[in-house]
Amino acid sequence: MERTPGGGTRFSFTRFINNAVPNLALAPQVTELNIAERDALFVYQVSASAPEKLVEESYIAGGITSSTSVSAKIHRALLKNGVIVKDTGRIDTSKVTKNFAHQLSHITSHAQKKLIDMLFFWEEEMMRLNVLRSEAEELKVVIEEEKKVGDGQERVGGLEKRAKELEGLLKLKPSLRGEQVRENEQLPGYVESSRPGPS
Length: 199
Prior knowledge:
Layout: E1 2-3, E2 9-10, H1 13-20, H2 35-46, H3 58-61, H4 68-80, H5 100-103, H6 109-149, H7 153-171, H8 179-184
Helix pairs in contact: 6-7
């Protein structure tokens, strides 16, 4: 069943087949955000006034849907079932239960799985950002104290360098860090020589 623009319901054979027998799909469906979608979500959220809060447009940035109305429905459903905490806007993935598919029945099972991946991804990103922010705050306090004392200029220089590194890490997109980058990295190597060696 699917909702009509008038608010009623109607039977959709295509949706029924895709949800009931997902193996009929011609191409394999990826249910994880690809690196470009992770980057797009990261850039969108970090540029917002409250990066930790997913908003209605976040699901478009994350590649879950391209429709603003569907994105708004997803957000309302996540607020209703408690996956997004109303007061703080933070994600609580423990609220993703066996009823999740029914709570978000207005999107396909493929989109639901991708949405779950997005929620876990952003929850992890917020943990990472919070750790970096707390370290930056501690460094700021230590730098101020060292400057008041006045004798630790070398130490202050090292701390300020780390503060700049943290500033860069806070803005570093997922595609520019982690295992995927290291796996694709071309390391220098030796070229086999065609000359005969010394005899």
